[in-house]
Structures are given as structure tokens and as C-alpha cells.
Amino acid sequence: MKLTPIYALLLLITHVSALVRRGAPANAPDALKCSFMIDFDADVDGHAVLKTHFEGKGVLWQESTSVRNKFANFVSVRIAGDCQDASLIFHGIPGAKTFSGVTSRKLAATQHSNSPPLSDAAYHTSTGVNDARQKLGLTGKGITVAIIDTGVYYLHPALGGGIGPGFKVIGGYDLVGDDYSDANQVPVPDDDPIDNCSEISHGTHVSGIVAGDARNMTAVGFVPAIPFTGVAYEAKLLAYRVFGCTANGTATDIIAAAIYRAAADGAHIINLSLGTVAKYADEPEEIAADIVSKYGHVVVSAVGNSGAQGVQMTSSPSNAKGALAVASFQSPVSLKPSVFVDGGSYPCVLGNLNASFTEGQVLEIVVNDIQAYEKRVENDGQTNINPGAKGKALLLRLGRRDVATSTERCRWALAAGAVQCILYEPTDSAQSITGNKDIPCMMLGREAAVALLSKIAAGEKPQVVISLKETLYPLQTAGSISNFSSPGLSLELDIKPELGAIGGNVYSTISEHSAKALNLSTAFKTLSGTSMASPYAAGVMALLMQHRASEIPSFNELRGYLMNTASPKPIYQNNLTHSVAYQGAGLVNAFYAASTKSLVLPAAIALNDTDNFKSSVALTIRNNDDITVTYSLSYFSAATVNAYLDGDDFTQDANTTTFTDDQHASVSFKRDFITIMPKAFAKIDVTFTAPAAQTAYPIYSGYIRVVASNQPEHPIHVPYAGLVGSYKNKGIWSRNSSSLATKWGGPLGYPPSIVKTGLYSPTSLTPLRDGDTINATVGVAVMILVSTTSRFASFEILAQGQTKQNKVLEAAGFNTSDIVLIQFKDETDEDGVPGMSVPLVRDVIPDGTDATEPGYQIFFGRAYNSSGYAADLPPGEYVIKFSALRNFVPFWSANEGDMDVIVSPTFKLVTGVAESSSARGSAAPTPSTNILKAATAQKLASRLSALLQSEFPLSLNSWRRVLGFAAPVMWKP
Q: For a designed S-S bond to 262, which of 113, 146, 456, 955 qualifies (C-beta 3.0 to 4.6 A apart)?
């Protein structure tokens, strides 16, 4: 049957954060209290209308930000006092189209590195930037790039030394002010977007990647280790500051306003090195990106740094259809300090927290476990510490980060009395490490480690000497996807990321304030992240737009040129071409994109799942040359991604996801060759046949190769990707996962029986059994483990047996013709929250963290009527129904069969002080705080009532957020 109207209404407007686990409140975001965006018709003066409206209702209010241009017309406000009945307050605003709650966004740290910079010849060659400069004369001149970030330290000589006409930074706007933060979200905007107080100096670093010019620097404090230039060093910049000095939070209305303002100010390209956790693309930033892209403004966005957490982690706003989603590739070379082993030189990386080594320092090495390398010991030093480490440099194998981080491993070395902590990685290059502030730390790559271990195993005592002088070393990971880069596909199975750019070990500008805070002698720093890859791609886009300015190409065409000419790369240390889900079209190439005389659209082909398989596509091939060109068509497959294990419903992380050379789609062409006249185009039909599944829900992909007779040296590639199986029927709730039990429950001593979605004793965490008694005073633990993100989930109480027959719920005031939601409560929440989640975000095992107990909330026998009425449930027999909307199901057409459902065992609810029969332990774990602090039942009722009587229609986006509930946390890569 169809979902009831009130169920659908609640589905659209209620927003509860996904419960991930206990002890991780940083991942539980918040709505901004009493903050709302109100959208108006284009011809309405929102300021004047709101002033009159609020004065008439006696409401105190303050404007946060606003936009009124051809792209949007909205005013964002904060309401003083009790705003729980905001929908009533907004009722009847003339000319208003929608209103929605404003949600908070937070920053996350980039990866710092002590590695000095790469030279222009290094990474600008691998991306075709040098060829674009030398052969085509492209520098970005005439193109303006907007940086929406922490502001820009435009006084930096490499960024022009000033702001305004005649400078590199020609303008911008500060939308928030210095004091704006997560705790003080009251914007105080001004006209100066300078970044001179944030320690991260993120926006300044991003700006230098796009358009910095650090040649011929002589000013004290501004001399780089190596002169360099940004990708489009003659481009102009616009700076839009959306974070305050603490850079720990901003809001959706602020980011959207910055996008619209940048487009109105004439930015050709808008860079967003920020985003949220992976979710559906319907937030204000994504809407803004979609709108401005239709006017030819190119939004470039980082896909995120959640590579350790497995597939489908690309973030918003990169998931917007109007945004170019950028992955990170590793740099080809890096300057690093050296370790000499009996005279042989090897690269090393110093710890970020403690790099207190001296030039020429001799290390006395003690190996903790000589067999750790061969036996792949993951916890080297945790329990088997070498007693001879005292006063020496202890050599430890750096195993998986989910077992222990570099900080933890060096803590083990310190506890053993070592004076230096030397880690080695069983890969070809030494990666950046955090290290431990209490002991000097260093990372060695495989080659250096093997040299040391083999000599020591042979009974030798090799001399180990440190040199802090930088030496240029090739990176073995060159041209491969960065391990931190978030893979796709999107939650809608769209191809995201769309391409990649250099994001690892990127040297760029920072502010004087940041340099001082980081104890650096010069205002430059090496950072890694998709935050660096996004501006690199934005710079390449600037070169492309400079070269094709006379064509006035659309966003779709510009994206097509970049994707057509990108270079697909193999998996690191593997001959298989990496999956489209990880690299999109491949590594961007500026010269090929600018010089190609052909364009093939669509630039990417999403084949969807088995149920919605797209078996045929018409490719349009455009010949822009002055001569007739013959095109040949073929295809090749990429690695298949196996992110699910047979009989295991949990999404695997990066450590257990596998890549195989099987389960490939076959592709056929109506014609293998086609000849196209000058300045003409032709269409050709392409037919796909999906592979049969050999594993659970494999992601398969590949590339159509189009070779033009006039430019055979750089073929065009069109990526395609799909998923085998029914994406709709894939379970949302985790019911059976041996991998989750091992990774999560194992380190905590929990048996597999409790690592699944369901009801548990709040004291012993033993599963609830059919017929158990629950005392409302003690409650029951509701454990929610999510395998796949869903747009919506609910937790419904259903009467059973005589309780149902006697209509006990109805007698208590509940309307059982609609759903009755349980109330979640934890020790920090007096009111409790309704059992509903929009969206329900899948659980992940964070890389490099200690094991934490599974997250759960407590149900104390209180429930919400669908109208908002709340009361304690009468004693009786009940079950709890877990329902989650399956993927590929629209809100408006959902019915009961479209939900993934778990029904708990029947339990008897009693009141009083008697112990529940389900409570089989003594120590009650602390309830999780990862549930949003939402409205009480009465407040919810008044909102629902007002919404149902609203005179102006609310968009789907506004229905979903109008109550002011929180959105997923924003990280910044």
C-alpha cells in the first residue's frame, strides 16, 4: 500500500543524523538554532517584505545573508526567542516560495607534510600544463577564478601583494567576519576577504595552486624553497571568505550565497575545496552549483578525503550534476630528506608532530621484530616490544592504520624507552605520518627498510645517518590515485569523480600568520588532499577557457573537453586500469584538452544497476577541425570493484575492498569507423551488455576509446560504469556481517550475535529475545548499523496481541492509522528525539582510530503520534519496526514494499522499578550522543499543523529541511 500522507510528510521534513557509534559526537552535526533561508519570487524585495511581516507579528529578527540577482533571490534570517513555531511565524509571507532550515558545516584537517615542494617541471609536465604554456601560450590570462574558502592572504607577494584593479586578486567579499565560528554563527560581513588569522590558511594555499607566481621572490619570509607557479598564474582571483578565524564552521546559506555572488561578480570558475559527508545532492550548495552552471559558470569541487572508508563516499557539493567532481592523484616526484644506510641513500619522511633530528645525526637502530616484514605483522610493538630499545632508535613495521596509527605506534616505542621512533611501510615510498609529539619520528619506505633488515638479519651493524638536506626522489606512487581520495559511484550511481588532478604533496602559499603558527620561516607549505586537486583542476579549466574563449562553450562542453582528454591510470602496483568509480576519466591533461579538435558527448555514461540498465547510448562526435576526420571506436575494461563479500552485507573499507579482472561489460558499436566532414558532427549508437555477477554487487567499468585520424597521438576516452544487481533491493540495514564483527566487535570482545541492527539489553548488550520484558525505567538499547545510505528511515512502535486488540494505544491518545514513532533519548537530551532519520547515512570504520563500541540509543517507552502528540506508552506487548527507504525509490511514490524492514522480537513493556528480563548485565554503557537534538513532541505538532496550512508551496528540498533539523557534517579536505 501507499505510505500514508503524514508518513510522506514526515519523510520529507524530518532530519535526524545517522547513528554511527557511541563516542563519536563530532560526526553528529547541528542545525543552526532559529536560522532559516526564505526564497522569494524574482521581483520581490525580500528585505522589505520580511520587515513588514515580522513587525506585524512582533518577531525580533536579524538578517544573516542575502542574495538577489539573476541566479537567486533569498534572505537568510535568525529569529530571536522561541522559534520552534517558525512555520507559523513564516505563514503568509507575500511572494515567498520556500523556506528551509540552515545547517552547519565544519572543516577537517588537510594532510600536512614536511616534504619541500615539487618543481614546475615535475607535476606540471605530468598534467600537460607545461606543454599548454610552451606550445599554446596558455597562462590563464583573461580568466577569473573565485575561491570560496577561508579568504585569501592577498598581501602575499606570490599572490600579487594587494587587492583590487591591477592586482591578481581583483576583489571578493567577506561573508562572515573574523569572529564567525561554530559557536558564534552570527555573520558580520565586510568588503575585505583577507585570510590573515586562520592557522590553516586553506584558502590562501588553494589560491596559490590556481594562480600563484612564486618566482623572483626576495622579501623576507616570502622566499620559497623552490620557485614555482600556479597552474594558471596569470588568471585573476576573486576571494569569498565563508569561514572565520577559527575556520571551524560555516553554514549552507553562506556557501550558497558565495556561489551566487561569485557568479554575479563575473567569475568564470568557482572552486569549492569543501564538502559534506557522502549523501544525496539536494543541499543549497548543490542547487546553487546546478543553477550557475546553466549560465556557463564552472563549479569545480573536491570529492573528499574518505578513501579509507570504501566506495560511494564522494561528497557534496561535488555530487551536484552542475559540478565537476575532482579526485586526487599522486605527484610524480618529491623533495625529501634522506637516510643513508652504509652509504646508500633512501628517502624518508619526518613526523609532523616531532621531527627533532639533526643534520648528520647517526642513529643506533634496534629492530623490534626482524620477521615483522616477512610475516606482515600488523601490530608490531604492541605486545612484543624489544627490551633492547631503551636509549636506541626503535624500528617498527607500520601496519594497517585501523590497527594503530603512527602516533600510537611511536607511543609504544616511547614506553619501551626508545629515543627515536623509526617506522617503515611495506610499500615503495615513504608516506606522510603524524608521528608523536613526545618522540622524534620518521617513516622509511620499503627499499630503505629492506636494506636495513637484510643487513641486521645477516649479523651486520649498518651505519644509519640522517641528512635533512632535501633530495629529489621519484615517487613510486606517481600518477596513481591518492589513497585518501574518496571513491564513487555517487549514491545515485552517477559517475563521480569525473576526473582527477594532482593533490598529493602540493606546495603553495600560506599567510604570514599561518607560517608563524606552524613555526615556518617562509609563508609556503606542502599540503595533500582533494582540496589541492580541486584548485589544480580549476587552474587547468582556466587554461582551457582561455584557449576556447571565442567558442563560448557551455559547462557541459567544457567538462567534456577535460574528461575526453584525461588519461586513465592503472591501480598502484597493478597492471589493471583503475576503476572509473575511483578516477573518473583519469588524470587531467591541459594540453590535450586545449588542443583537441574533437568533442564526444556524453562525456560519461552511467549504466545504473541491473534493474535500470542503460543498454544503449547515442554518442555525438563533433569534428571541430577544418579537414575531414575518420574516427575509430573501441573499448577496454577497467578493474572490477568488489566492495561486498558474499554473505556479508556491510560495505567494505579500503583495506578489504578488492579489485579483479573479471565481470566486465561488453560493448559493441553500430560502426567501428565513422568519417565526419569539417565542422560537422555525427551520432553513433553504442550497445552495452552487463556482466553476470560473480560477487555481491560488483562495480564494473571501462572506457570507450575514440581515435581521430588527425590526432591519433592522444585518443579520446569516455568512461562508463555500472553495478550488477538490484540497487533498490540491496539491504540498508546490516543484518549479517562477519567483517563488521571482526573489525568492530572483535577488538571489543563482542560476539558476532550483537553486531547487527536490533534491540539489546542496555546493561549487557545481549540481544532481545521474543517474550522478554522491558521496564520503561531501564529501557532497551536500539542498535542501528547501516550498510547503505538511505534517504529516509523510521523506527515505529506497533502494538501486538491483546494490546492491539484492546486498542490500548488509541485509548492513550495515539492515532494508529498513521505511524507511531518511538522516542530516542540519551543522557544529554532532556526531551528526546523522534525515531526518524533523513538521510540515514551508512556506517563506516574510520581509518586509524581505536575500536569503539557500537553506537546505540535508548528507548524508554515513550512515543510520538504522527501529529506530534507524545506520551508514555501503556504497558503491553509491542514490536519495533525498523524501516528504511530503498535506493532508486522517489519520495512521492514510495510504498511499504519500497522499504527495507526489520521487525524486532515481541517484548512486554512494563513500568516501575523492577529489572527488565532483557537486562542480563550490570554495567550500563553510556548511551550515544549521536542523535540530533530535535524539537519536543508538542513543538513538532505545531510545526506540522502550520505546514499543512501553509499558503505557499514548499519545494521537496524545503519540506525536508524546513523544521531546522541537522544535515550531515561538512568536512573540508
A: 146
